[in-house]
Structures are given as C-alpha cells and as structure tokens.
Amino acid sequence: MQIDVAGISKRFGAAVAVDDLSFSVRPGAVTGFVGPNGAGKSTTMRVMLALDRADAGGATFDGRPYRELREPMRSVGALLDAKAVHPRRSARNHLRMYAATNRIPDARVDEVIALVGLGDVAGRRAGGFSLGMGQRLGLAQALLGDPPVVILDEPANGLDPEGIIWIRTFMRYLADQGRTVFVSSHVLSELGQVVDELIVIGKGRLLASGSLHEVLGTGGRVAVGVVSPDATRLAELIRARGASATLGDANRLEVAGLDAPAVGELAAAHGIVLHELTPREPSLEDAFLRLTSETQEFRAGETGP
Amino acid sequence: MTDLLRGEWIKFRSVRSTWVMVGVAIALALLISGIAAGSIEGRRPVETLAVSSTFVFVLLLVLGIQFIAQEYRFGTIRATFTAVPDRRRLLLAKTLFGVSVGLVTALVAVAGSFLVASIVLNGDGRSIPFDARLAETVTGYVLVAGLSVGFGIGVGAITRNPALGITAVLLDMFVLESLVTVFVSEDVGSVLPFTASFASIPSNGGNSGLSPWFVALAVYAAWTAAFLVIGAVIVERRDP
Questions:
Q1: Cβ-based neighbour number of residue B184 at 10 Å
Q2: Of A59, A16, A80, A35, nearest in space to A289 by CA
Q3: Cβ contacts of B16 on chain A, cutoff 8 Å
Q4: Handedness of CA A62, A63, A64, A70 (dihedral sign)
C-alpha cells in the first residue's frame, strides 16, 4: 500500500508547522522521516491519520484518505505515543479494547503480544511499564490489524542501544514482508542503515527525499583516507589539484575534494606507493545536520532583528 | 456499532475505578434508602426510594465525564480516533454504552433500595405500595440516571479534562442553579438541568420546579441532548 502526501499545510495560530509538504512512501521499504525537533514530523503524521485537520492538502493510502478506510487498523497501524495508556489497565486489555473496535479477534491480541516479546507481562498494568516495554506495547498495538502500512512516530526515542537495535531489526522485518514502513526520528543515526528511503524536513518544508545514498550525497562531501610512505609528496600533488590534504601521524593523510579512484590514479601516475586507500562514507549525522542547519539559519535570518 | 460497544465494554470493565464508582452509587442508594425508611416519619414510604437520587446522579455524571475525559487525560484518545476515525460514531457508541450503564446501575440501585426499604418499613408494620406513584418514581429515577451519564459524556467531550468537567458540574449543581433560582426567578431556575433532573422524580417533594415530572424529565433530556451535540461538534472540530 502506497502513501501519498500531497501539499499538506498546517499552522497553529501564527506558527507554521507544516508548509506545503508533499512526498510518497512506497511499500517494501523502510522510509525514514527525519528532521530536527519541531520540524513538523508529528504534525504531518497526525494529519495523515486524520487526527489533526490540515489547512490544505492531505494524505491518501492507495488513493483513499484515512477517514475512508474501513476498519483502518487493518490497513494502517500507528505508534504515536507509547506513554498513552491508562496506567491501571493491563497491557492485554489495552490491546483488546482497540482490537474490538476493528473486529480483530482476541487470538490476534495474544499473537502480537508474543511477537513483540511482552508475553510475560501482558497481564500487568501498563502504567508500570518501562519506556522500552511501552514502545513494544505501542508496536503491538500498531500491528494488531496485520496492516500493510506501519507508521511509527519516534519509536526509538528514549530507548537504550539494545532497544534501538531491536526496533531497527523489527522495522527491517516488517519491510521485508512487503509492508510500507514510515518512521520518524529527530536523530538520524537512531535509524541508521535500516532506512532505505529518506524524507528530510525542516521547519515544515521538504529539504530532500530519495534513497539514503541520494539524499546523503547531496549533503555530504567526498573524502578519502590515505596511508602512504610518501605522504608528504602525495599531499603536495593533491593540493596542486585544488583539493585539500591534511597530514596526520604515521604517514596518514585525510583528503577532501577528491574521490578514492582519483587519489589512486594520481599516486600511480607519480609512482607513489599506497598502503591504504579508504573512501570515507559521509556520516549520516553530518549530512543530516548540514541539510537541516541550512534551513534553520535561513529561517533565523528571516525573522531575526 | 456492536464492535464499538464491545470496545467500550472492555474499556469499562478493565479498570477498577469504573466498578468502584458504580459500586459506590449502588451502595449509597441502599444505605440512604435504608436510613430514610427508618427515619422519615411524615413521608410516604415510596419517597424513601427517591432520597438517594441526587447522590447517585452526581456519581453517574462523574462516571460519564470520566468515560471520555479520561481518554484525553491519558492520551488514549488518539489511538481511539485512529481506530475509529468517525468521531461522531464513536461518541454515539460511548453515549449508548454509558446510558446503558446508567440505566442498569439505577435498576440495581432501585431494586436494592426497594428491598432494604421494605425490610426497614416492615419492621414498623408499613410497606411500599405498588401504585402509579411508585411506577412513576422508578421510571423517573432510572431514566434520569441513564441521562446523567449521557450528560456527563457531553460535558466531558466539551471540557476534555476530568477535573474541570467535574468542578463545572458541581459548581452549577450546588451554586449556580441555586443562585439563579433565588436571585433571577424560580421559573428560570426550574428549567436548568439539575433542578429539572430533581423534579423528574415525582417523590422528590413536588413543591418546587416543573410539573408534572415527565415535563421536567423532557427538559433534562433536552439539556443532555444539547450538551452531547455541542460535545460532538467540539470533538469533531478540535485536534486531539
């Protein structure tokens, strides 16, 4: 099931939360929805789920708006706020009350409880759950209707590293089953390499979208690590080509502005021996910060004194 | 609709506070009618059933407010709306279920009160007569109980905050309506919701307020409907 978001705008009083935002999310992939806090991620998700009214635009699931889905939990599963439980209701009853509204049998409730590993605590009050257990409960809730679309708002927020890895693995598993997985985060590295597609927003506007490598390519820079017994001479040759080269300890050289093949060919042409030639992947966080900080500065300039 | 009603039933039965509230309402009714039967000399025996009404209705109003405002308080309303995007249908289900709870609670309270009062009165050689007045009293009692939960749901949908809703209702009930009755006019006061709900039970004195009792009941039903409609519009319009 494909999600299409078309021209969503939403303002709260004078503040613009989402500004003419459009994108598509395809099935069989994990699509990361990233941006700094306050970028409009949660608002966008709430509009998609027909919780908040958009001032303009809207979202459709295979062409149908959320409100027109019959028994919507069977089409779209959502995890919005893991702490949204009645503290004195058991986890199992919490799930059952939602399952009942979409005619989902109690057997499925026990199935999702087992799936997220809450079997031992399902009879306990949800109010006593840790954040990690709460996220698992929220995920179980999202999966109740065995939906082709799963929307997760900051599922890794506040989790320990083990919990983050668990969530990532789970999202991969869901996408590999052919589901559409749409997941937001304000820390891109939380999602890490599990993300296939990336939608980056800042101040409610679309900054970049596409595959992980496409998006990071636009924000990253070419960099190579080199080790050579003749590092000093190689550094001069690189600088002569207009790129930068920084000498480190033990004949180590950090090159920026030339890619690995170019550095290798340059060394070969001058008979320089290389011991190491390592393309430096642009870091997720670097690229992300670069993309988002530009808009933030731009916006700050607009409204500044 | 049965799926939504089932969801509300699970919500209701899976927390203790709802049972406590219903239990306290019934226990209060039994206790008060027992005391009333033993102490109110000049009154007709049938009135002992009605004395508990105000207390029971306040508890049922609070229960109604909790039915919806608790969902906002704990944030479960968002998941509820994603499960059931048609908010009017959801509110209708809540109202139908809530009113049913009110009716059943009142029936149990009345039956229990009747039993307790009969035992106490029998000790004095008196009994509750099975007559039209008894039938009217029971009808008024049970229907106002059902409506009170509906009224509470309307208030809860408007305030979305349990404490605020309960405070508003109690202020109106015990302060505002009395002030209007005393300082504005008795006629205006008599059509206000809780004064009307009081007059909906024929055995509640009958010296003030609307009469006959079913006119008062109709007025209270109209207030309930009005609050539910306003609540539905607000729930539909406001982002949760």
A1: 11
A2: A35
A3: 88
A4: negative
Q: B68's torsion region: left (phi>0), alpha (psi -120 to 50) or beta?
A: alpha
ipTM value, please give it.
0.87
H helices present in B75-86, as ranges: 76-83
Between B16-39 and B87-123, two packed helices, what is the crossing angle to 10 degrees?
30
Contact list in B for residue A100 (CB cut-off 8 A) is 3, 6-7, 9-10
User: Which helix (H) or strand (E) is A9 found in, with range?
Assistant: strand A3-12
Q: What is the DSSP string of A234-251?
A: HHHHHHHTT-EEEE-STT
CB contacts of B7 in chain A (<8 Å) are 97-98, 100-101
Of the candidates B10, B85, B239, which has its C-beta nearest A66's C-beta? Answer: B85
Is residue B64 a contact partner of residue B156, using CB atoms and an 8 Å limit? yes
Angle made by CA atoms B67, B68, B69, in degrees to the nearest 5: 110
Instruction: Using a cut of 0.90, tell me whether the model's pTM lies above it.
Output: no
Q: Which of B69, B97, B100 is nearest to B167 (CA)?
A: B69
Q: Are β-strands A149-153 and A76-79 bridged in parallel, bridged antiparallel, or unpaired? A: parallel
Name, in order, each residue with C-beta under 8 angstroms of A137's C-beta and a sequence gap of 6 or more. A82, A85, A91, A94, A95, A116, A118, A126, A129
Which residues, 6+ apart, have CB-to-CB distance to B32 below 8 Å? B51, B52, B55, B113
d(CA B36, CA B30): 10
pLDDT tens per residue across all 240 residues of chain B: 999 999 999 999 999 999 999 999 999 988 888 888 777 665 566 677 777 888 889 999 999 999 999 999 999 999 999 999 999 999 999 999 999 999 999 999 989 988 888 888 777 777 777 788 888 888 999 999 999 999 999 999 999 999 999 999 999 988 998 888 888 888 888 889 988 888 888 776 555 677 788 888 999 999 999 999 999 999 999 888
Q: Which of A210, A222, A293, A215 lies closest to A259 in space, CA to CA?
A: A222
Closest CA in chain B for residue A81? B75
